[in-house]
Amino acid sequence: MTGLLHAVVLDGQGGGRIIEDLSEVKAVIHQQPMWLHFDYSFEQTTEWLKQQDFLEEWEWQALIADETRPRTVVGSEGLLVFLRGVNLNPKQSPEDMVSIRCYANKRLLITCRKRHIMSAQDMLAALKQGKGAKDIGELLSTLVARLSGRMQDIIWQIEEHLDGFEDALDSSEQLPNYQQLATLRRQTIGLKRYLKPQKVAISELLDCQQEWLADEDLRVLEEANNALSRYVEELEAAIERAQVIQHGITNQQNEQLNQRMYVMSVVAALFLPLGFLTGLLGVNIGGIPGTEYTGAFSIFVLLLLLLTLGIGLYFKRKGWV
């Protein structure tokens, strides 16, 4: 394996010719619009990038860096655009966003990733069907739009979960799971962490004013930028909703605890005089009245019942129960 996932020579009509081998790329690179998609974890990818004279050292190192944040940088002969997409890979968390690094100029788009990105696969499938991008500007803007579009489903899922938590909190039948809510809140914060700088990166891309970005490409980028603004606002609202739900859960738990403690206090108050009397008569010393009378125990129990009833009526009158 060379690290090359696919290479496509665009035909300008929405389709392209697939190149399987890096050795074939050299013959057509810069001659026709081309998209090269790499896995940067391969050493062959690093070696190939180092050999390209149109890439400065800091540029190819940025394309294979272990950690990046969303941003747009103007290079010597092209643009460096670093983006993130939601992680939709199996058994992965969406907030653990996948990084894709792009180098673009008029005739070339190089994208590098380590983990699978479905947006890139969708673009490749569209090119194979002849329904894809016609030039590099459209290819880059389509990538940005697809990355942004896939975030909407995740945000909807977050909002649906929060709706469920709120319904459970309002019903009071069973409190929402506090740990699940905390996990959802952490996921929301993780998404917001990358979406805010990604919005800035797209704004910087719009400000670059590259001639190979057509008006339609800029319109698509502007729509993606507006969508990201909305997503950030929705995530901020979701974080606030999660905090309100957490406070609601805490308040209900405290209220339930207070109710239980109140009932226990009332029961203790009811039985306090009964315990005093039974303890007093159980000291087993001479002089206790009724020891010689067979009906004394029944009378004593009756008196205790009347005393308990009296205390209960007193609490009722005071509004304590």
Describe the structure.
- The chain is of the alpha+beta class.
- It has helices at 22-28, 43-50, 57-63, 118-128, 136-171, 178-207, 215-281, 296-318; strands spanning 4-10, 16-19, 34-39, 71-74, 79-85, 98-105, 108-113.
- It has one domain: CorA soluble domain-like (Beta Polymerase, domain 2, 2-Layer Sandwich).
- Strands 2-1-3-7-6-5-4 form a seven-stranded mixed β-sheet, with helices on both faces.
- The model has no long low-confidence stretch (mean pLDDT 86).
Give me the secondary-structure topology:
Layout lengths: L3 E7 L5 E4 L2 H7 L5 E6 L3 H8 L6 H7 L7 E4 L4 E7 L12 E8 L2 E6 L4 H11 L7 H36 L6 H30 L7 H67 L14 H23 L3
Parallel strand pairs: 3-7
Antiparallel strand pairs: 1-2, 1-3, 4-5, 5-6, 6-7
Features:
single chain; alpha+beta; Beta Polymerase, domain 2; 7-stranded mixed beta sheet; 8 helices
Tell me the series of helices and strands, N- to C-terminal: EEHEHHEEEEHHHHH
In CATH, the homologous superfamily goes by the name CorA soluble domain-like
Instruction: Write down the domain tally.
Output: 1
What Rg is obtained from the alpha carbons, in whole angstroms? Answer: 35 Å
The biggest sheet, with number of strands, parallel, antiparallel or mixed sense and barrel status, is:
7 strands, mixed
Helix proportion: 55-70%
Task: Count every beta strand, where a strand is a DSSP E run of 2 or more residues.
Answer: 7
CATH fold label? Beta Polymerase, domain 2
Q: Which CATH architecture is right? A: 2-Layer Sandwich
Proportion of beta-strand residues: 5-15%
User: What separation lies between the terminal Cα atoms?
Assistant: 78 Å
User: For the largest beta sheet, what order do the strands appear in spatially?
Assistant: 2-1-3-7-6-5-4
Number of helices: 8
Summed over residues and divided by their number, the pLDDT gives a mean of 86
The rough form would be described as rod-shaped
The oligomeric status of these chains comes to single chain
Report low-confidence residues grouped into runs of 5 or more.
none
Query: What would CATH call the class?
Result: Alpha Beta
Structural class: alpha+beta
